[in-house]
Design a protein that fits this description.
The chain has 90 residues and is an alpha+beta fold. The protein has 3 helices and 5 strands, in the order H-H-E-E-E-E-E-H. Strands 1-2-5 form a 3-stranded antiparallel sheet. Helix 1 packs across helix 2 (18-38).
Amino acid sequence: MTKQELVEFIANKANLTKADALRALDAMTDGIVEGLKKEGKVALVGFGTFSAKTRAARTGINPLTKESIKIPAKTVASFKAGSKLKDALN
């Protein structure tokens, strides 16, 4: 499902205009990003939990030259599905 298809689904399901649905979806994604930046975790009970995890710096290998390279530490987003989401997919 694309973002546009999701906006149309939200608009139909919540009886909103597409513009209102787009603003609601953008506000939700902005809220998740802000929550991850500030607290490192956003929990939507039953749906799942978004969390920010730090990957440690490590040494990798360039596959073309077989040369060792240093990969810096970075923060990545992760998602763990909640029970209602898992049940809905089965």
